[in-house]
């Protein structure tokens, strides 16, 4: 498969790649690539994930870093703005809080879609870095103050109290947050989805338009850095308390909904859920517990925002108006499925944090509940969204979800109830 065999790195440092040849990485390099022993007991035994494109003989994975942003990196290189040989200077970038290692990190099948050592590579792979391997963190951990109007409102109405430790007088919640890029160990990802690794590789290759030939040509490479969004976690309280089942943990696992989360669109309950969970997390931390919000980049049930907006139109234009009994059907008409979030991989982050028990899960989703408990994590209590926080136009979604099995402490709407149009018209 090698096209330009003269030099392993044909592009000179600082230069944009020339037009004369394409650098294929789908050949067996054999020189210098370090082995990965997934779920090994220590970082040294596990080995680093090397997704660099500049020293291709060192690569031991399929794909490259930064998830979907790898395409922007390619644009930056193509335009000459970025040297393809740029190596990150990791001075002072180390995590503000050390996460793990926890027993789950080396239990087979527990963590299959992220690198548990991804935040600590500068420390645990110092020798390999010094030897010239371009190893990049796939996780970064930092501190932040988050200020939300709903939290300020809760403070003003007396539902929350400032303590200067978890919540300041002006409504800023003090958090530790971590950004996590996906790192998939293909044999175990296949197992989670009940297919063979060969089928998973072939379908990933075909459905990305042949983007990663190594999926089908390099069965020796078992780790894939997929071009998708990852997760961001927000921790309220001491991150190390997450792994202590004696400390009350309030948690929400939230899937991205830009329209509601950021822009306040009222057709769904996403932002109310998120801000309600943050309020619960702050209260939990102030009770001596710890809070966690894990935010997954899975826009529109991982169908994407274009599909989501098409479905909104289809719902509101259908005969009889926007009704809960047609809620999932309209999605399926456009997308072919109701949901592509596949919560199977979501609990990996919880296992990375050492969590074994969630005392209060702020979610009504039976899919999230099932995935978390199946991952070996106990859930004591589920906390639903108070009715007062559900926007009028989101009543359709809420009724449809409750009828489909979402957790509710109240009555599940019956067939007649689901047929009542509750959604707003498009032009009102
Ligand atoms: Zn939403």
Automatic annotation (TrEMBL):
UniProt KW Repressor keyword: no
Region (Disordered): 1-27
UniProt EC number: 3.5.4.25
Keywords: GTP-binding, Hydrolase, Nucleotide-binding
Pfam families per the UniProt record, alphabetical: GTP_CH_N (PF12471), GTP_cyclohydro2 (PF00925)
One record GO biological process: riboflavin biosynthetic process
Recorded superkingdom: Bacteria
Ranges where the GTP cyclohydrolase II domain occurs: 243-383
GO function terms (MF aspect): GTP binding; GTP cyclohydrolase II activity
Span of domain GTP cyclohydrolase N-terminal: 21-207
PANTHER family: PTHR47259, URACIL-REGULATED PROTEIN 1
NCBIfam families per UniProt: PRK07198.1
Name of the molecule in the record: GTP cyclohydrolase II
């Amino acid at each position: 498969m090698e096209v330009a065999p003269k030099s392993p790195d044909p592009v000179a440092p600082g230069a944009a790649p020339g037009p004369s040849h394409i650098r294929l990485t789908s050949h067996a390099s054999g020189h210098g690539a370090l082995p990965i022993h997934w779920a090994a007991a220590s970082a040294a035994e596990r080995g680093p994930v090397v997704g660099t494109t500049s020293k291709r003989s060192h690569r031991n994975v399929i794909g490259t870093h930064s998830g979907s942003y790898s395409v922007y990196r390619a644009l930056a290189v193509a335009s000459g703005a970025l040297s393809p040989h740029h190596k990150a200077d990791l001075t002072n970038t180390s995590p503000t809080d050390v996460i793990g290692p926890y027993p789950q990190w080396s239990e087979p099948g527990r963590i299959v879609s992220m690198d548990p050592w991804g935040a600590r590579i500068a420390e645990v792979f110092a020798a390999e870095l010094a030897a010239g391997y371009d190893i990049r963190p796939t996780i970064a951990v930092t501190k932040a103050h988050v200020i939300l109007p709903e939290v300020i409102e809760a403070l003003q109405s007396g539902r929350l109290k400032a303590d200067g430790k978890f919540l300041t007088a002006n409504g800023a919640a003090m958090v530790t947050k971590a950004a996590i890029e996906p790192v998939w160990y293909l044999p175990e990802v296949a197992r989670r989805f009940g297919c063979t690794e060969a089928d998973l590789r072939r379908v990933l290759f075909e459905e990305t338009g042949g983007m990663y030939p190594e999926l089908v040509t390099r069965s020796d490479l078992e780790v894939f850095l997929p071009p998708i969004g990852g997760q961001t976690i927000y921790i309220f309280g001491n991150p190390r308390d997450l792994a202590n089942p004696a400390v009350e943990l309030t948690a929400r696992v939230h899937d991205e909904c830009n329209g509601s989360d950021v822009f306040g669109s009222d057709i769904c309950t996403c932002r109310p859920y998120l801000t309600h969970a943050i309020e619960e997390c702050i209260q939990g931390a102030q009770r001596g517990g710890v809070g966690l919000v894990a935010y997954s980049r899975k826009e529109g049930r991982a169908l994407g925002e274009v599909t989501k907006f098409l479905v909104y139109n289809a719902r509101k234009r259908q005969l009889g108006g926007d009704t809960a009994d047609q809620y999932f059907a309209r999605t399926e008409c456009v997308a072919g499925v109701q949901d592509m979030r596949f919560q199977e991989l979501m609990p990996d982050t919880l296992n990375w944090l050492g969590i074994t028990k969630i005392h209060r899960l702020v979610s009504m989703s039976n899919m999230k509940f099932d995935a978390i408990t199946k991952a070996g994590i106990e859930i004591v209590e589920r906390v639903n969204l108070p009715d007062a926080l559900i926007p009028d136009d989101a009543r359709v979604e809420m009724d449809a979800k409750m009828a489909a099995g979402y957790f509710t402490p109240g009555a599940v709407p019956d067939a007649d109830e689901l047929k009542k149009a509750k959604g707003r018209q498009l032009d009102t």
